[in-house]
Amino acid sequence: MAFEGLSDKLQGVFKKLKGKGILTEADINEAMREVKLALLEADVNFKVVKDFVEKVKERSLGQNVLESLTPGQQVVKIVNEELVALMGGTNSKLTFSPKGFTVILMAGLQGTGKTTTCGKLAAYLKKNGKRPMLAACDIYRPAAIDQLEIVGEKVGVPVFSMRDSKQPELIAEAAVREAELKGHDVLILDTSGRLHIDEELMDELVRIKARTKPHEILLVVDAMTGQDAVNAAIGFNDKLGIDGIIMTKLDGDSRGGAALSVKAVTGKPIKFIGVGEKSDALEQFHPERMASRILGMGDMLSLIEKAQENFDDKKAAELERKMKKNEFTLEDFLDQIGQIKKMGGIAKMLDMIPGLNNKAIQEANVDEKEFVHMEAIIQSMTIEERKNPGLLNGSRRKRIAAGAGLPVNKVNNLVKKYEDAKKMMKQFTNAPKHQKNKMFRGFQ
């Protein structure tokens, strides 16, 4: 989970501050020392840490903070504001050509997930009404063209390639003509990478840039490489001039130092983050939301957006009708499991809820494998059994357990969870409107 260690440490520091009615300069100094150590342990750039702590300390020692009724909360507010500023202040969106055709050049070192990210970006643009095309400009890495074609097929986006050409800039130039001719409004250039920054790589990218005049140059970096990712961003920006950064594998980096350092060091914003392996696991980067999650304030906006993306008005209306008539079946229960999985799973949803720190999430004992087991059990049932769980006697449960490759007690647990969910949903459906609102506020 991104920023897990940093988040726990910072929340511990601020818990102490909030517990004090009055703050002294010594309290602020001690807190800032702990914040500094937490940031350094999270692999944040040393100069960035030094400047950040100085700004927070200066603002926290102001009279309006020390003399306020809630000085601890005021300090947390300052840290939140400075974290947001550190990561860019506001969300940085892609720039599209006013003429209607946009070229995006994707650059990066080998191993950062650049080709996969090209596919994810194409899927993102397609979902948002664009008609993207991918272009295979990596002529060095074995099977690079094949990989991009597989990625393109997976997201339903065409791929332009010239397998016999050994000049990437000519491939890119031809791709621009082809994309415009076929009515595409965005062309994404997948370029070659190296194990390290070298003159040959940069010269090639500069030639591609000169031939295609891209509206966006996006650098793909691996969050898990920490300050190496920041150094790569510095190198590419100095020699190529980048417009933004896509940070992959942020969900697997518990420290998060690169995400907190790169904007301050390079001046270039993070525009997207990779949060998984699926084709839709690319999200816009929102500094204010990320800062909120780091400080344990949750990220309800992202949670709501994910719910809206996977929300089906017709299904919701049908579900409410079934609940009112007591017709909620195991088929419907299976559908609800699928909705939760689409939103990233229970753990990811809990991570966005205010007030839940990483320890609380771990103590919730969330096991995503349970979803797989539940799906296997329901799929091992007959249609009649799914529609009428009352048929599930002992012998049927044994047969279902054998079909799912699980013990019978797993089947019994699933039936109990289904019954509990049915009761809870019926209670919510039958509640008066003012009570529904009250129940909803309880989750906020």
Summarize, please.
Helices cover 59% and strands 9% of the residues. It contains 22 helices and eight strands. Helix 10 (227-239) links the parallel strand 5 and strand 6.
**Share of residues in strands:** 5-15%
Q: Name the CATH superfamily assignment of the largest domain.
A: P-loop containing nucleotide triphosphate hydrolases
Tell me, what is the CATH class of the largest domain? Alpha Beta
Overall mean pLDDT stands at 83
Helix content: 55-70%
**Biggest sheet features:** 8 strands, mixed
For the biggest β-sheet, the strand order reads 3-2-4-1-5-6-7-8
| Poorly predicted sequence stretches spanning 5 or more consecutive residues | 435-444
Count of distinct strands: 8
Structure write-up:
With 444 residues, the protein is of the alpha/beta class. The protein folds into three domains: 4-86, SRP54, nucleotide-binding domain (Four Helix Bundle (Hemerythrin (Met), subunit A), Up-down Bundle), CATH 1.20.120.140; 102-294, P-loop containing nucleotide triphosphate hydrolases (Rossmann fold, 3-Layer(aba) Sandwich); 303-443, Signal recognition particle, SRP54 subunit, M-domain (434 Repressor (Amino-terminal Domain)). It has 22 helices and eight strands. It has an eight-stranded mixed sheet, sandwiched between helices. The radius of gyration is 26 Å and the shape is flat.
